[in-house]
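During the second year of the project, the team shifted from modelling isolated chains to modelling whole assemblies. The rationale, set out in the original proposal, was that interfaces cannot be judged from single-chain predictions alone. As a representative example for this report, we include one of the complexes processed in the last quarter. Its constituent sequences, exactly as entered into the pipeline, are reproduced here:
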Amino acid sequence: MNYQHRFVIKVTGESGMGVNSVGEILAKSLKNSGMYVFAYREYPSLIKGGYASYQLDISDKKINSSSSECDILLSFSRLSLHKYLKSLRKGGTVIHSVIKVIFTQEENEIIANRELTVVYVPAREMAITIGGNKIMANTVMLGAVWQAMNLDLSKLKQMIESQFANKPNVIPGNIKCLEAGFIQNLGDISKSNLGLGKTDNFTDDLLLTGNHAISLGAVSAGVRAFYAYPMTPSSSILSYLSTITHETGMLVKQIEDEISVANMAIGSMFAGARTMIATAGGGFDLMTETVSLSAITETPFMCVIAQRPGPATGLPTWTSSSDLNIAVYAGHGEYTRLVLAASDIESCYLLTQVGLNFAEKYQIPVLLLTEKQIAESFFQVDKMPEAIEIQRHIISDQEAQNVKSEDRFAVTESGISPRWLPGQSESVYKANSDEHTGDGSLTEEADLAWAMYNKRLRKEDTLLQELPEPIVYGDSNPDISFVGWGSVKNTILDVIDCLSEFTDKKIAYIHYEYVYPIKTKAFKDFAKNSKRLVLIENNATGQLGQIITAKTEIPFWEKLLKCDGRPFFIEDIIEFILGGEENAM
Amino acid sequence: MPCNTCVTKPKPTEMKDFSSKNIFTWCTNCGNYGINAAVKRALVSLDIKPCETITCFDIGCNGNGSDKIGGYSFHGLHGRVIPLACGVTLANTENKVIAFGGDGGTLGEGIGHLVHGVRGNYNITFILHNNLNYGLTKGQASPTTKKDMKMNSSPDGQTSENLHPVRFVLSLESTFVARTFSGDVKHMEYVFKQAINHPGFSFVEVLQSCPTYNKQTPHEWYQERVYDVSTIEGYDTNNRVQALEAGEDILEKIAIGVLYQDKKSIPQIQRQFNRTEIKTQLVEETNQYPIENLLKKFM
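Output from the structure prediction step:
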């Protein structure tokens, strides 16, 4: 498929060849050249070898999703060249630096049928001759791809200079290599017209990942302790927060395992420091007993779960949204929790802050789901949203003089009891993982246990009154009505934006950001107004759909599901819409 | 962090300040009574206020004491009390944090936490209730139960070698290692006081009698065997090798007292490079921090 407002470059090579660096330089330079960029990474779970890609979808309007096809394939390694050749669109261009490539018959047919242009650039030799170091081969390739896109070299030059600002002696060599690549004879390549309209200057726009936005949300929310054990795709929250501790003063600490992470978070929150933790599904599995502890001790708990496919190690570096069930059902016993799901920069930043406010107000576990597709992709935004006011719901020092110990877990109508911090009052209390009375003293009395159990469950009713309904996007009289959560939103909104290029069908989408406890009024109206109701989720079983159906008794006869570690590409959804009902699972 | 009342109307701490309305639920002659009393005496003797005391309890017989002592406390999960207490102390170093765990939770389910708590040198006092069995689940073998001992669920005798807590912890770059005995409240008080005052992870093993499930080493058995290391001529608590030698025997002549202390101990929170100039506690710092400067990197 060709799009009026989308041009795609795919940078590919082995892991360890600098695919990411080239991708990031391109992303920033394209943004600085006045374009919207969305950058999506595919990489294997190893440090050297295999094949990796850094895909840049470029537009003259906001985009937050990827195409499954590319216009230019920039390839540094034999394996990645063969692997990604078939991802080229008709009329596309291959620029590679692989010596003596022999294409198979099948590949030659692809090249012929799709009218591809294949250009070899002797980048390594050029780098040695011109720059004096083979390591500058990637810079040669950057120059070549910039030439192919017919763009002004100055923005890319500036980016190279700032990239190597702390190694000024390598700048001249790199600039020479860049220029050499830019004027290298690319044979009969027709310089690509990007096909994009006139664009404004987006130089001041931000390019950042979901994990950056979550980290910034934590800074805005006054998080003072962040604990984590590295696990893809959550690790870059830990690494980014650790690089800014001298600015933020935050205690950022890598801990020995996820069980400790969760328990340290409980300890710090109990003592009164705003604390956040992050992990992926497997790490969260280890934390679930502590989620249950948060519930009974009414200690606020805030955990980010960055999803990737399971079971077990699964596809460690790929994307998924299959951990909704573990978030909703984690931990033994019955209790109130809040499950949020981010989709983009804005929601990553805001939901982190909202989540912490809810965790402290309701004294419950709050779980914020993201996906590798959100956590590690680079999104372009013009600015960050306004920070949300911090609300801790800790009683004042004055009020703390008048509380009694038994007020701390007092049975209330709302389920919420007054919270004060250790040291704030001479009325001390116990946070007890055993069932307990108002001051936290252990009890096994039936009536007291019943009252306390239900008090904690009543928080859900109170919470539901406060939670927003899901948001509806798209046409008010849709032919197809999609229901989803997470990164699916980004693809669908981009599809809504370009759908008229392909069909006059109308679509609508209802998006769950506050996933559990689930609000259903807006959904019921949405379903009533639908001709075809389609559940769309990046998992195999339609986990959100099951929760909705259990609550509303509205079934989903049509589902568009995907569980191969890849996100929804815009073609997945467009083809579904064009293909009609025979594509339904 | 003392409360407003303690600041405006200061008075010396008394034993009744740490007493509890709740009734003890331990067996007659359980070593826990002595430990509970000795902890209170140590706190009173150091004039620590209940409002600045946070006791953290593991699951087990020790944990059933979580609501039998004044001050704030947290009764956590089995085996997980050490990371819980580490999180508590990082948030606010003005609190006195004392954690309690049994030999099952600490050396079985949670032994990894003990290792990392020690090497991180978090500023907590950790009291190991070592009664050589799982009391609350009715007398199964624990990691300190001697091999061949016939226990609930190992009727022919348990088949693993026993762990040696003091030797183990001394091998972990610990900064404070002590041992005491649940039959001697005064000795426990003396050891606990030093442990509470130590800046860093203070490990205290309490040899604890269990009259119900440990008939082999009752109160009298320990009473006949213990002696304080300070009675060893020229004993140097700053010498790890000497501590390993003195602490080794747990069968015939059992050394108690402060076996090892690193006087140059630096607790975890003071090792945070970014916080050396910061005078406030994490609990005091929850504010909306600006992100404008951080955003420049993303332009």
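Residues 397-456 of chain A form one domain. Residues 581-585 of chain A have pLDDT under 50 and may be disordered.
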